[in-house]
Amino acid sequence: MKKLILTVFVLFALTGCYKDDLLLPDIKQDLKPELQIANSVGIKLESAFVTKEVSMNVKLDKSGTVTLKIFDIGNKVVSKETINVKEGDNVLKIYTSSLPSSAYRIGLFDNSGIMLGITDFNKIN
């Protein structure tokens, strides 16, 4: 009986040491093709034509804090948000329902104010 209990305990201990992160999916495989970025740093929208919301990929070569600014056609900042991102791909949602129909530009800036990427979109009804 002691051997059986010892064998079961050893089996539980060995299976408890299994590397769990092998079961995690590769994020790049789950990323939609329209959101993939080839460079190590950048910003990309799912679509250039937006109604209420759009998915966006922010890709960085290191973790940190970045600022997203939305500029109108007159280059005036209409929205600004600071977010924490991890290294690699970060899929975010941009909600645009409060913006009037027009052309806009989203800029990605590091905490020093240096522009890391920029992309354009058109808000339609």
Provide an overview of this structure.
The structure is a single chain. The protein is α+β, with helices and mostly antiparallel strands. It has two helices and eight strands. The strands form two sheets. It has a five-stranded mixed beta sheet, with no helix packed on it. A hairpin with a 4-residue loop joins β7 and β8. The protein starts with a helix and ends with a strand.
Query: Could you spell the SSE succession in H and E letters?
Result: HHEEEEEEEE
CATH third-tier fold name? Immunoglobulin-like
What strand line-up does the widest sheet have? 2-8-7-4-5
How much helix, percentage-wise, in residues?
Answer: 10-25%
- Gyration radius over CA: 22 Å
State the separation between the terminal residues, measured CA to CA. 73 Å
Class from secondary-structure proportions:
alpha+beta
- Tertiary shape: elongated
SS strand fraction: over 45%
> Largest beta sheet, briefly?
5 strands, mixed
Q: What's the mean pLDDT score?
A: 85
Count of distinct strands? 8
What is the class in the CATH system?
Mainly Beta
Low-confidence stretches: 23-29
Question: What is this structure's SSE topology?
Answer:
Elements (H helix, E strand, L loop, with lengths): L1 H15 L10 H4 L11 E4 L3 E2 L2 E8 L3 E8 L5 E9 L2 E8 L6 E9 L4 E9 L2
Parallel strand pairs: 2-8
Antiparallel strand pairs: 1-3, 3-6, 4-5, 4-7, 7-8
